[in-house]
Design goal:
By secondary structure, the chain is mainly α. It has a domain of about 90 residues. Helices cover about 65% and strands about 0% of the residues. The N and C termini lie far apart (about 50 Å).
Length: about 140
């Protein structure tokens, strides 16, 4: 039983973080060099996920992951992470809280890139501000 719990914990810790691709990181650096960040966007972009809410909700068994898996910028894999955190609660608090904060931040970054790359309103806002984003 202890081996199963340890294996589950390792699987969660090593696979559950939402990461950004190299291209996404490069695009974020481009925008940052021109003064655009998730916290200081151009135009009407709003963050779809709250890092504080995700972290605080993960004090409860997996709730922060359920929030990230079903919210505005839902990443369905977080529902599975929520179930795994539920099964390993209260021990899961050790990794679930920081993981949810980091993942919410990465989801916000990815959604901002999508907004400025593909949404017509986002493209127009960058154009008005004379900001370019290469693909």
């Amino acid at each position: 039983m202890k081996k199963l719990i340890l294996l589950t914990i390792c699987a969660i810790v090593f696979t559950s973080c939402t990461t950004l691709s190299r291209q996404e990181n490069n695009q974020l650096r481009e925008l940052q060099a021109q003064g655009v960040t998730v916290d200081r966007p151009v135009g009407n972009y709003e963050k779809p996920a709250s890092s504080v809410a995700a972290g605080a909700l993960n004090l409860l068994p997996g709730f922060g992951n359920f929030y990230l898996g079903t919210g505005n910028a839902a990443e369905s894999s977080h529902v599975l992470y929520g179930v795994l955190n539920l099964l390993t609660w209260p021990l899961s608090i050790l990794w679930a809280v920081p993981e949810a904060v980091i993942d919410a931040d990465n989801i916000n970054k990815r959604e901002m890139l999508y907004y400025y790359s593909y949404d017509e309103n986002g493209k127009q806002e960058l154009k008005k501000a004379n900001i370019t984003l290469t693909r």
